């Protein structure tokens, strides 16, 4: 039996939007919590050094074609789209 993540309606009310997503799929002006990093230990350590550990609350400031800009506390970080695909986030 597979468990599904909780689902909520989208703003338009037509299609459901899962609370669980990758960072590159989250729209701007959204607050999310990093729940996992899909990558090697080296990547997790790199993100930890940048101030982006698992469990961090992150504000998505911009989400454009090539990059995602996030805010953590007083920091702003620009992440590439490929890196954004490796961050699993949930809306709190």
What would you say this structure looks like, in words?
The chain is mainly beta. It has helices at residues 41-49, 81-84; strands spanning 7-9, 16-18, 20-22, 30-37, 57-63, 67-72, 75-80, 87-90. It has a 6-stranded antiparallel beta sheet with strand order 3-8-4-5-6-7. Strands 1-2 form a two-stranded antiparallel ribbon.
Overview features:
6-stranded antiparallel sheet; two-stranded antiparallel ribbon; 2 helices
Spatial order of strands in the largest sheet: 3-8-4-5-6-7
In the predicted model, the low-confidence regions spanning at least 5 consecutive residues are 9-17
Order of helices and strands: EEEEHEEEHE
β-strand percent reads: 35-45%
Mean pLDDT: 86
- Helix/strand/pairing category: mainly beta
Give the C-alpha Rg: 13 Å
Instruction: Tally the beta strands.
Output: 8
Number of helices: 2
* Overall body shape: globular
Biggest sheet, open or closed, and with what strands and sense?
6 strands, antiparallel
Quote the distance from N terminus to C terminus. 25 Å
Percent range of helical residues: 10-25%
